[in-house]
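HOLO CASE FILE
Compound: coenzyme A
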Amino acid sequence: MVERPRGQIAPPPLHRMETDMKIVTEKTIHNTEVERLVAEAFGPERFAKAVYRLREGVAHDASLALVAIDRSVVVGTLRFWPVEIAGGTPALLLGPLVTAPDRQGEGIGSRLMRAGLARAAAQGHRIVVLVGDEPYYRRFGFVRSLARRLDLPGQYDAARFLARELVSGALSGVCGLIGLPDRQVLDKVA
Ligand SMILES: CC(C)(COP(=O)(O)OP(=O)(O)OC[C@H]1O[C@@H](n2cnc3c(N)ncnc32)[C@H](O)[C@@H]1OP(=O)(O)O)[C@@H](O)C(=O)NCCC(=O)NCCS
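Model generated. Tokens follow.
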């Protein structure tokens, strides 16, 4: 143990002193680390969740997949999946969002969220939905009220089903079950 004169403050952990964190588009080389972060955060039970019915057999939107990288290590991940509301209105399903357990509370999740939503808006997407903790996601504009007229396949906790408009009024008059996107969208994001 390093002896320190009385009253001297301990230095911050090394990764906080030398952080060089960047948010970049996920590449194939990141895949294993991304899958590991997601598996560690949500466990094998994740596949039973309602949102996974909308991910099975569908690729995430690679142009919107982001990773937080610090000195070549993936310390955070955010992906979006294309979906369609009531067979006609395109939308994005946000998630999973994960920050490495030893890096939580440093703002990595917030940076991923802001970058992902900005990119989705710039690409012309209008609606984003997710199932997650409202106390966390409300700071990014996700609210329960906008998802009240929407539904997901299978069982889920309605209190955690949230939506956000990227274009004001995008959810006006939109209601119904969220399902898989149409073929053209799938071809575009693959
Ligand atoms: C949720 C998660 C992605 C947040 O990432 P992060 O990098 O720690 O987030 P940030 O540093 O940007 O924000 C931290 C803030 O969010 C708060 N926060 C984190 N998780 C929260 C939650 N589930 N509900 C409410 N607030 C939460 C923290 O208390 C902290 O608050 P503060 O800013 O007032 O101090 C991360 O905790 C995580 O990976 N959790 C496990 C996987 C998960 O639950 N993913 C989200 C699905 S709901």
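CASE NOTES: The chain has one domain: 19-189. The helical segments are 14-17, 31-42, 50-53, 108-122, 134-137, 183-189.
CLOSED: yes
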